[in-house]
Specification:
Structural class: alpha+beta
Helix content: 25-40%
Distance between the termini: 91 Å
Radius of gyration: 26 Å
Length: 181
């Protein structure tokens, strides 16, 4: 596909855009990665440049959207010509995992070399991984992102602490005089 050029743009410049899109909360990490690679492919094909990509994680939506109460928020900042937004949004509209998207033009007549890109190979793998939200961590459905594998819980020590607490509680009850009326 040939990138569209607007007569309004200065020659050799592009526009800077921000797109935020929300995926269904139950989208697996490989689904997030495939959406990201699709958007990146469109930008590469149309001569755009990715400046920043970020996965804001799973969050509770302000209101129910397509029967979803939570969504995975993805943030993209990029350079592109006038037709790149239409192509990205057309593709996002076709994906079942995308429930909302919003694009804002940040700047126009930007020289592509003037804006550095913060995106590396490590960024792409990090953006594809969505951390568990607070509710899943509290209910035990997921581990906290702060929990390391080497921080294994000593179950014997935990059981011993529970036994001691129960014994202390029984000892305190036995020490209390009973109220007789």
């Amino acid at each position: 596909m040939q990138a569209l050029k607007s007569l309004k743009d200065e020659p050799g410049t592009q526009r800077e855009y921000e797109t935020i899109f929300i995926l269904r909360g139950d989208t697996p990490n490989d689904g997030v990665g495939s959406v990201n690679s699709r958007v990146k492919g469109i930008l590469d094909h149309m001569g755009g440049k990715v400046l920043k990509v970020d996965n804001w994680g799973k969050r509770k939506l302000a209101y129910e959207v397509e029967k979803q109460l939570k969504g995975i928020y993805l943030y993209w900042r990029y350079l592109g010509t006038s037709g790149v937004v239409e192509e990205i949004e057309r593709n996002l509209r076709m994906l079942d995992s995308v429930i909302r998207y919003y694009t804002v033009k940040i700047d126009e007549d930007v020289l592509p070399d003037a804006r550095p890109s913060d995106v590396s190979d490590e960024t792409w793998t990090k953006v594809a991984e969505t951390a568990a939200d607070e509710e899943e961590i509290m209910t035990g459905q997921a581990r906290s992102p702060f929990f390391e594998e080497e921080d294994e819980i000593d179950t014997d020590a935990e059981e011993e602490a529970i036994r001691r607490a129960a014994a202390n509680e029984q000892g305190e009850e036995a020490a209390k005089p009973e109220d007789k009326e």
